[in-house]
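Intended use. Records like the one below are meant for learning the mapping from a protein sequence to its folded structure. Do not use them to infer anything beyond what is encoded.
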Amino acid sequence: MGAWRGLILVVAVLALAPLGLPPYMMTLLTEALILGLFAMSLDLMVGYTRLVSFGHAAAYGFGAYCSGWLLINTDLSLPSAVFVAAIASGVLAIGVAWVCTRSTGVSFSMLTLAFAQLLYAITFRWTSVTGGSDGLAGIPRRPGPFGLTALTSKTGFYFFVLGLLVAAFLLCRQLVNSPFGAVLRGIRENEAKTLALGYNTRAYKIAVVALSYALGGLAGALYAPFAGFANSELLFWLLSGQVLIMVIVGGAGTLIGPILGAAFFMFAQHQLSSYTESWAIYFGMLFIFFVLFVPRGIWGSVAARLRRPAADGR
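Structure written out for the chain above:
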């Protein structure tokens, strides 16, 4: 019950944010929520199945391009374009996972990177669809179904993003607490034993990669109309590294931790970049600090401290 009360409180605070925050901060908060969804999608692979992906930007960039193209070239409403892009990302992931899961460990990670770089290269060559190096610009926020125009405003779009993030979190939480999630944790801890128990571990890995890519594609599909453009940088390996950092800093295997890690990463980047152009050096030092002294991440450490008094009380 305590966890549910905490979740309701956080959602209530976020829902009231438009009443007290200036437009600039609301823009940052919306972007943080989108990145939080992106980081949480990767946590399903990294934190619960120990499938470390170096190419998760493929899901984000593909979702952004798909959503952007649909909004520019069709009459689909914003929610329809976003959901179609998410589903397309999940379908794409089935083929990617079928190949990548034939390997394990570093080989798996490098194959995910290879697929992401392949999509990155395609964006430059397929100019009639992707716009080449210029990308897709002028992506509109179309009204929702039944002529609803709320999504065209910054506040309306913010609530749309918040609602999808909460829904995705509840879905993932239910998933990891289900028998399916128990098998994922079994793969993480001892895949050979899980296989010996009769589970088709490769099928489970393909399924979790597909779900992870679908949620990552959903985040990218939201970013395209949020920013108004989609370019090849959304598929670059640097973004894959950044989202992996968000998961580690926030706390892998916690779902909520990567959301906090994404918010921390984005706000730290904005603050540091306002003081120095060498902000990446200082953020790298912060990352080293977390790896050495806060290995459980932000949420993992907080959760451990909250459990300790209860254990002492017993």
